[in-house]
Amino acid sequence: MRTMLRDVSVLTVRNLVHIRREPLQLSDVTVQPVLFTLLFTYVFGAGIVLPGHGSYNAFAIAGLLALNLTTSSMGTAVGLSNDLTSGAIDRFRTLPIWRPAVLAGRSLADLLTAGICATIVALSGLVIGWRPEHGIARMLAGFGLFLFFSYAVSWYCACLGIMSKGPESAQGLGLIVLFPLAFVSNAMVPTQHMPSVLRIVADWNPVSAVTSAARELWGNPNPSAAIGDWPMQHPVAASLLWSFALVATFAPLAVLLYRRRTTT
Amino acid sequence: MDAMIEAQGLCKRYGATVALDGLDLAVPAGAILGVLGPNGAGKTTAVRILTTLARPDAGTGRVAGHDVVREADAVRRAIGVTAQSATVDEVLTGRQNLVMIGRLSGLRRRDAHARAAALLEQFELADSGDRMVREYSGGMRRRLDLAASLVTRPPVLFLDEPTTGLDPTSRVRMWGVIRELVAGGATLLLTTQYLDEADELADRILVIDRGRAISEGTAAELKAQTGGARLEVTLTAPDGGATAALAAYVSGDVHESHDGMRLRAPTRNEPGLATRVVRALDDAGITVDDVQVHQPSLDDVFFALTGHAAEDEEAAAA
């Protein structure tokens, strides 16, 4: 047990050092959140009128968290793929370590990175006028839902990273799935005016559930509350269910794929 | 029976490619085996199986008395591995790499740091220990990689083409490092496609071709298989009697250069050959500037064993 924890923590620290020293990965969680916040609130915010006339800036922060956390979870895919192709994982495998530590260390490092990313989004939100209105406990609960969701998505990305031939193709595969996932949702715009098929997809999208849940918990404008679909009526429960389902599906799958890829 | 590294009938195929086709090898404790072969001969596959990274389709491998498939963890505790492509972490510093390996191998934090410092010192990396590996030269990376495989002082070492891609100076330096290392009594299996490297470092050489061992012996034994040496004599002045004087010491026709100064002939290398050649020429009143007995190179050996040059297969595999 102690050696398992030690292996996981050593590899987690190693991955954090990587993220800190890789300019691209670092900017994904530091520069990009600030940039997205400014772009969306100043460029889109001017043109989007919310049903019920709430403040777009207050509306946008939960969505920006969803957007940044979803897209930056690609780092999991790229990082794993890098380690598999560079021989780093082969080196670890010649050491007497607890085998799942490689995956556990990766997802833990990415969870901590997601925490940093979320903090930066929140700070830029505070600057442009966003406030969590319902107290500390509910504020933390909202962030908790986001981090859980981000952790769940990173297991999906781990699968992509293990299946892909190299970091570039991992990134390509990730983009194709994660961008529509992040954008066909209520994250940046209310879904009310979307074409009907897209609107149904958006309202059942896990990204919409976690975003709505945070808006509820933080007392921010939440136009989706007026939508009758079950996830929009029960966003906290829906978000938890989605995240559990994603972890339950993709974590065992990632372990299986990893075992298969490293058993040659 | 005391083999630290042992393979019996290892077979491995990747799709249609047969990488290993019944490879046998054994390395006694404290010995250095050089596995020599061109690209694509199966060297890396053999190392991957013996270091628990790949499973054999057939056959067994044992390292330090443990089966590489069934007792993989015990094998991992006994080995140090330097893979063909340097697998040190580019983004970490040299020291961070060594500490990480130490921690993952079960050393306490303080011991891992102490060991890292000692290894950096030993491998002349102390000055660059806190720089990121991505700033290292090729030779420094290889030394760090080697250091990384020594963190736990493993009794069995695998070095897969430790000098491939290095410039001649770094290569010679690496040889020095490897020699020091085995002076400590470790058992070593080293693969190489450089024939002089096997000659330089290994006690015994196993020549493999197309996934199978085709010959094994000391460098001298292998050279003997090519059937002899070459005698080269340079005279002070051309002399018609030189060929006749050499006749007793050569095993074929004497070839004379067009100026008549240099004579070449195949010979059987016997102790004292050069002395007797000089004496014979002196007796005939011929003065000599230079006498050389050339041993066959291991390139010649490979050609004699396989019927094709090492480079041929490399090109075919590429």
Highlighted features:
heterodimer, A: 264 residues, mainly alpha, B: alpha/beta, 2 domains, four-stranded antiparallel β-sheet, 12 helices, disordered C terminus
Explain briefly what this protein structure is.
The complex is a heterodimer of chains A (264) and B (318). With 264 residues, chain A is mainly α.
Uncertain parts of chain A? none
Tell me the strand percentage band of chain B.
25-35%
- Going by helix content, strand content and strand pairing, the class of chain A is mainly alpha
Portion of residues within helices of chain A: over 70%
Average residue pLDDT of chain A: 90
Compute the gyration radius of chain B: what is it? Answer: 24 Å
Quaternary form: heterodimer
The total of beta strands of chain B comes to 14
Radius of gyration of chain A: 19 Å
Q: Output the number of helix runs of chain A.
A: 13
Number of helices of chain B: 12
- Based on Cα principal axes, name the global outline of chain A: elongated
The overall pLDDT of chain B, averaged over residues, is 86
> How many independent structural domains of chain A?
1
SSE topology string of chain B: EEEHEEHEHHHEHEHEEHEHEEHEHH
Whole-number tally of structural domains of chain B? 2
The largest inter-chain interface, given as chain pair and residues per side, is: A-B, 23 and 30 residues
Distance between the termini of chain B: 38 Å
Unreliable stretches of chain B, pLDDT < 50, 5 or more residues?
312-318
Which CATH architecture of the largest domain in chain B is right? 3-Layer(aba) Sandwich
